[in-house]
């Protein structure tokens, strides 16, 4: 793969938008991590091809960035990267000028924006994605955008989010259960402040499709909603509790602990917590029981007790979020 990546690197200046998207998608599928020099030149080439990217190509690029964990580096770190970036500047200039129709101004613009930072092209990609209010974006592309941001821990601007929310709402009924769960998970991971009516509408669509939600997705939706400090409507809670009861044997210990933590955030006490009730009523130990009993943090989440160090159930639930990476 190193030889292939080197050959691609030598020809980046001739790559179109689709070529760039397909290349990084393939690298992500193979879990291949190119060199930093390759990344810097590739990102400058993407910057030069921004206006040619379709919604799917842009979403695939962000997805590949997320899978390969190419996160945006803070501006304060730019000087530390400048030395390595400067060695690649001559080749990068040639690549960027080719993508900008041979104009050296395109190369200079890309170099000025990058500042030698890792993942610097993420913000230009996001800005371009919402330039037309996400017009023409499919439900699949919108899902990939949000999931990628959650995976990268890259919070978009408020303006971007204000454009994304209504665009996503138009596709609520087109999203699959996995996509709905991933979107609310990513928003929770990013600490987004969402309008209550928007989130209630998403949860209502999820409620109508609860029968097709496996246990894992139910736990993700519950954890995400609780993390967003949103209390669902009473009818939603009743339907969700029924789903927990009917699919109880499908949950892992970690998933049950997160559901129990979410119930308490929704106002349930330990006495009327469906998870705790079901654990008490079992006639035999399950794999999930052993997982919970052998892990003090999960046990505290289910029982709602504090540790000797004063760690609360809320803390345990928050820390468990890192395990939810759909």
Q: What does the secondary structure layout of this molecule look like, with pairings?
A:
Blueprint: H1 2-10, H2 17-29, H3 36-48, H4 55-67, H5 78-99, H6 104-114, H7 122-129, H8 139-152, H9 158-169, H10 177-189, H11 196-208, H12 215-227, H13 234-246, H14 253-265, H15 274-281, H16 287-293, H17 296-303, H18 313-319
Helix pairs in contact: 2-4, 3-5, 3-6, 4-8, 5-6, 8-10, 10-12, 12-14, 14-16, 14-17, 14-18, 17-18
Summarize this structure briefly.
The chain is mainly alpha-helical and 326 residues long. It has helices at 2-10, 17-29, 36-48, 55-67, 78-99, 104-114, 122-129, 139-152, 158-169, 177-189, 196-208, 215-227, 234-246, 253-265, 274-281, 287-293, 296-303, 313-319.
Count of strand segments: 0
What fraction strand? Answer: under 5%
Helix and strand sequence: HHHHHHHHHHHHHHHHHH
Overall 3D form: elongated
Largest sheet: none
Provide a count of the helices.
Answer: 18
> What proportion of the residues is helical, as a percent range?
55-70%
Name the quaternary structure: single chain
Mean of residue pLDDT values: 77
Radius of gyration from the alpha-carbon trace, in angstroms: 23 Å
Given helix and strand content, the structural type is mainly alpha
* Unreliable segments of 5+ consecutive residues: 79-108, 305-326
**What number of domains?**
2
The termini sit apart by 27 Å
InterPro entries: FAST_kinase (IPR050870)
GO molecular function, one term: RNA binding
